[in-house]
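Thread: quick sanity check before group meeting

JM: Hey all, I'm pulling together slides for Thursday and realized we never actually wrote out the predicted structure for the chain we discussed last week. Dropping the sequence here so it's in one place. If anyone has concerns about the input, flag it before I start.
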Amino acid sequence: MKITWLGQAGLMLETGGKTILIDPYLSDNVKNFEPKNYRRVPVDERFLAIKPDVIVITHNHLDHLDKETLKYYLTDEASCSVLCPNGGWQEVRKFGGKSNYVLFNTGTTWTEGGIVFRAVKAEHSDPFAIGVIITAEGKNYYI
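JM (edit): ok, ran it. Output follows.
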């Protein structure tokens, strides 16, 4: 598995011919609401051209469910699976298109292309926040 840091808490995982994005935050949207929390690492704009197969959103905070970034991936032409817990699920569904919006709460398991995604409880200020265990290539990865 190839793992690429996208900045902030964002990751791209490439395995089994699939591209998975986790919490992609490629804008500076948080600064508009909390100016002291501006982006410290510049965005690599090449990441905006990625065509993900799966997007995992762990919770509904601006730097994890970033609509300014998601608009590049959740277009009318795009077709990917978006795994998102309560709180953010209704928001991501507004993008519409051909994507599959999966309500991904604690205890949910989703399998795509032989890759298994399991939502587990995460302690955070968002009561619906999840961690995710991804099983691929015979290994477990916790995010």
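AS: nice. The chain has a mean pLDDT of 94. The two ends are 14 Å apart (CA to CA).
JM: adding both to the slides.
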